[in-house]
Write a structure and sequence with these properties.
The complex is a heterodimer. Chain A is of the alpha/beta class. Chain A has a domain at 27-51 and 80-230: Rossmann fold, CATH 3.40.50.300. Chain A contains nine helices and ten strands. Chain A has helices spanning 40-47, 70-77, 95-106, 111-124, 140-151, 170-187, 198-204, 231-237, 241-251; strands spanning 2-11, 14-24, 29-33, 55-60, 63-64, 80-83, 158-162, 190-195, 207-212, 215-220. In chain A, the strands form two sheets. In chain A, strands 6-7-8-3-9-10 form a six-stranded mixed β-sheet, with helices on both faces. Chain A has a four-stranded antiparallel β-sheet with strand order 2-1-4-5, covered by helices on one side. The radius of gyration of chain A is 19 Å and the shape is globular. The two termini of chain A are 36 Å apart. Chain B has nine helices and no strands. In chain B, helix 4 (75-115) packs across helix 7 (172-180) and helix 4 packs parallel to helix 8 (185-211). Classes of the chains: A alpha/beta, B mainly alpha. Chain A binds chain B through residues 48, 50, 74-78, 80, 82, 84-86, 88-91, 101-102, 104-106, and chain B through 24-25, 28, 112-113, 116-118, 120-121, 123-128.
Chain lengths: 257, 248
Amino acid sequence: MIRIGHLYKSFGEVSVLKDISIEYRQGECNMIIGASGSGKTVLLKTLIGLMEPDSGTVTFNGQDISKLPYSEKKRFRQNIGVLFQNSALFDFATVLENVMFPMDFFTDWTYRQKVERARYCLERVNVSGNDKKYPGELSGGMQKRVGIARAIALNPSYLICDEPNSGLDPETSILIDRLIHGLTREFGMTTVINTHDMNSILEIGDNIGFLHKGRMLWQGDRHTIFSTDCQELRQFVCANSLARNIMEKEYGGTPTV
Amino acid sequence: MLRKFFIQTGQYFLFLRIVFKKPEKWRIFWRQFFVEADKLIVSSVVLVSVISLFIGGVLVIQTASNMQNPFLDRMLVGYMVRESLILEFCSTMVALILAGKIGSNIASELGSMRITEQVDAIEMMGVNSASFLVLPKILSATLLSPLLVLLSFCLGILGGWLVVYMTSIIPLAKYVAGLKYCFTDFYVFYSCFKMSFFCFLIASISAFKGYYASGGALGVGRSSTKSIVISCILILMFDLVITQLMLY
């Protein structure tokens, strides 16, 4: 479980995160949603320790990583798999080497064992047979899958995904969502996904937090999102025509977008 | 302006402190060391060779045309060419050329990795990204660059020899005698030392600029340009300092 308590973050005069408190549960797809510029990425980067909060706490199973010394923070990070927005695969390495990268550093496995594990991860995300290709030779969807394979290579307890659907067509997008959802359930990970994609939210949003202008205005799940009273969230949801239709038919009335 | 200079200098030394940490795994470090050696030093061999060969030839012609006085022994042309090559060209001039090639390579590579979040990805895995990415670059450039000095010196001499042989601008025997005249082996060490130091500056400054690049593709280009400019200025400044310390 990840718990965020009274988190504040600002850049100079601009306050980006204001009093964020939320819990992310194990074995669920926890989502941070909100419009562009609402502070989603800053919240995610603060969560994984790439940015220091001004105040507040981030605890992983009760452990506050912001207070850990650098060496222990480094060790702790081995337990967190991260899928970056543009996959962040290493250009200098092949697909197989990308997935083997964390194993090279943190395991004493033989080369054969590492290759076996990497091939298993690649197979699990349906990109086997591309071992010797470089990231530049792969499509966006395949890059995301390789990114996921690399993130789960060391069997982490936490999976953090920054906009996993950005730049993908709807079909691939849904496949990636289901893959993340399936892996979360299969490995019992605590998954946090940062997205503004309504399809993803409706497909796999087990626990959703709506961020608006740096404040967490609403928390619920994909079943309760349409019945919300939060006007900002209704506006966000109704920007998607499919969601607008559902809201109009089943819950009556939509806000002006 | 002055405040920014001091902040940047402080950040540079803090960056070096992160870089010069014990590598996570020596086996991976050595693998990266040889990859970088190939990328930075071996790939510069052709450029350095071509430039040295031509500069050696040009130096012979220029020196000979400026030593027309009959009281000056023609042997001195060979001597002057050798001294010019070893004292200044093979280290400082080659370093300035490498500042463009190696410096832009390092800054743009690291800058691109930074803006595409590859550096963050390494850091998130619990790996010291600065040490993993930068240390092999700095060490391979610093430790192996003297080989380029030696190569440049030999090819510069050869370039001069070819010009003398083909044009008979001075007797070949005089050129060879000049090359052997009063040879000071300390100058070879001095030149190699200078080159090592300059390559340390090039690699570390370019890595610093690239590692902290921001602002998309434009930012990467800017950091690459800045790293070359700063490296060139520092090379010339430290050329003066090292020469004063070691030769006088």
